[in-house]
Amino acid sequence: MAVRDGGAFGRELRRLRLTAGMSQAELANVLHFSKSYLSKVENGAKPATMDLARRCEAVLGAGGTLVALCEAAAAAAAGTTAAATSGAATHSGQQGRVARSPARASLPMPRQLPARPRYLIGRGSELKMLTALADAADGHRAQFTVITGPAGIGKTALAISWAHRVASRFPDGQLYVNLRGFAPAGALVGSDEALRGFLDTLGVPPGQVPSGVNAQAALFRSLTAARRMLVVLDNARDADHVRPLFPAGDGCVAVVTSRSDLAGLVAEGADAVAPGLLTSADAEELLAERLGPGRLAAERSAARDLIEMCGGLPLAVNIVAARAAAYAGKAAAPTLNDHAESMRAARSRLDELSTGDLTTDVRAVFSWSYRMLSPSAAALFRLLALHPGPECSVAAAVSLFGQSFDRTNAALAELSAAHLIAEHASHRYGFHDLLRVYAAELVSEVDDVVTRNTAIERLLEHYLHTAQAATVCFVPAWVPLPLAPLTPGVVPEGIATGDDAQAWFETEFQVLLGVIAMAVASGFDRYAWQLPWTLRTFFDRRGHWREMEQVSLTALAAAQRLSDVAAEATARRGLGRAYLRLRDYDAALIQARHALVLHEQDGDRLGQANVHHDLALLAEQRGDQALALHHAQQALGHFEAVGGPAAQANSLNTVGWFHAMVGDHGEALECCTRALELFHGLGDVAGEAGTWDSIGFAHHCLGDYEQAATAYRASIEGYRRIGDRFYEAGTLVRLGDTSAAAGDPEAAGRSWRLALAILDELAHPDAEEVAERLRGL
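-> C-alpha cells emitted (777 positions)
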C-alpha cells in the first residue's frame, strides 16, 4: 500500500539517513530501491510504502517512527487521523534506553559474550573504572574504552568479566568478536568479516548486506543508532582494525582489547584502561583460589618462589596453578617446591610455561606480538635482552643498537606501543621478566656472536665514558683514565654539571652493578676494572661500601687476568678504600701497601700520592696522627710535582687537618687557607667542604667556637649539595661538639641527632659513638 504522507515521512527519513552518515546512493543500494525514487520520497514527491518504511526501519534503526508515520497517514486516509497521530507521537517519543521499544521487540537480541572467566583476581579497581566510564556517558554519547597491555596480562578476562556484570544494562544485546589481531599469519579476522557477522546477527539478510567495509559500517551504525548495546572487540591489531565496528547509539558501549596502545583512538576521545601485573598478594590469592588455601599455606615459600618467577603475569600464574592442580589427589603428586625446582632448572622458564596450546602458551603468545614488529624494532627488541636492566635510557639504547637517535626512538616507540617493553619513567624502558627471557632466547637464536659482542661492547663504552664524565663533574680533582676514542654509534649521556652527575649515578646505580657483571661474563676485562674505578667516589660518598668492595674485587680479578700492573694497583686502591670505610683496617693496609709497591714499580707518582693519602687516613683511624701527617706530607710532595690545582688543594687540606690533629693549629689554619685559595674558581664543592671542616676543627681546638661553628656550617652546606652523607654526618658531629663546648646543649643535641640519623641509615658503626653523646646530654 502506498501512502501519501504530505512530506513528514520524507523529512524524517532524511534526518535518520544523515544521522547514520549515509548518502542517498548508499541507502538506496542497501534497500534495493533506486536512488531516484528515494530522492523523490524524501522530497515528498513520491508516496512511501509500508515495505519501504520497514526496510528503512531495519537499516536506520528508527525506533518505529517511520512505520508509525505510514500508519498515521493510512489512518488519516481512512478517517481516523486523530488516533493515528496520537500513535505516531507515542512511537516517536519512545526512545528509552533501558526497556526495548515495541518496534524493536521483534528484532534479534544477540547474547554473544563468551563464558564468564572463572578466575579474576586483583582487578577490582579496573572493573570499577570501566563501570564509572560507562556511567559517565550513560545515554549522552556512545562510549568507547580501550583495554591495553602486554600479552598475558588478562585484558580479555577483564573485558568479558565486566561485560557479564553489566549485561543487563544493554537490553538490545551484546555483540562479541575475537579479531585475532596478534594470532599466527592468516588467522586475522578483518573488519569486513566481523561486520558481516554482526549484520547477520542483527537480522540483515545476506542479499541486503552491501559491498565494501564503508557501506557495511554505515549499515551497522544505522542498525545500532537507536539501540542500547554492548560491543566487545577483542584482540584488535590497531585502531583502523576496529573503527568500522563501533556502534552509533548514544546508549551503546564498545570495549576494545589490544596489545597495541591504540593511541589514535585515545586521541579521538576513547578512554583507556591498562591493567597491571598482579601483586604478590593477588597472585597468592589466585593460587589459593585454584589450589585451595590449605595447599597454599602448607607450601607458601615454594608458592612465592613460583610467583616471583612468573613476574606477576596472570597467564603465567594460571599456567603454574593449572599444572599443580592437574596432579591433585594423585599418588606421589609433585609438590609446589617440585614445580619451582623444575622452573629454576629449566633451560628457559618459558619451557615450564608451555601448554601446547597456541592461545595460552606463554612463548607462543609473545611470539604473536614479536612477529608484528618491523625489522628494526624486532632487532632492537632482541638486543635489549643484552642490557642488564632493570631499565635502559634512550642514549644507552642508541649505543646498544648502533643506530641513530631517530631510528632508535622510532623502534622504542613501536615496542612500547606493542607493550613488549614499558616506559617506567621518562625515557627509561624496561622488560617484564618473562619478556626478557623471550628476547634473550631470540637474540641467541637470531643474532650471531659477533653481532652480540659488538653490541655489548658499544653498551659498555656508553656506560664507561658517561661514568667518567660524571665523575669529572662530581670531583674536579679526579684524574680521568686514558680511554680509547668512542666507537661510531656510541652516545654517552649529556652530563654538564655536578648535579647532573649525581642524578645520573643515583638513577643508574643498579644498572651499573649489572653492567660490571656483564663485562666479566662477556670477557671484556678492560671494562671490568675501569668501570668500578669510575664509580668509586660516588660509592664512597653515598655509603655503598659493600658494593664498592664487591666491584673492586671484580676489578682486581680482571686486572690480574690482563697482567696490567697499573690496573691492578688502581683496583687495590679502590679495594683498600672500601676496607677502610668498613673498618677492616688490616685488610685496608694490605691493599694500600700492595698498591704503593705496584705504583713505585710503574713509576706512577700520581698513584703513589693517592696511596699515601689513603695511608694517612688509615693511620688516623688507627690513632697514629704523627704517621698520618707523615703520609699526608708525602702525598703533598707528589701532588705538587705532578698533580693539578684541585689535587694540590685537597692534599694541602689533608696536611692541615693532621697538623690540627697533632696540636699545631696555627699551621693547620695556614695550610687550609692556602687550600681554599687554590680551590677558588675550581668548582670542587667536596674539596671546599672538606677544607671548611678542617678550619672549623682548628678553630674549635683554639677555643674560637663561633668561628668554628661558622666554618662547620659552610662545610655541611657543601656536603649536602653533593649528597655526601658520610662526611656530612662527621661534620655534624663536630658541630655538635662545638655547640656543647660553647654551653649550648640544645643545639648540640640537634646536630648529633641529625648525624645519628645519617649514620643509622648508612649502618655505620660510628652511630654508637654519637648515640653515647646524646645519652650524655
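Residues 285-362 form one domain.
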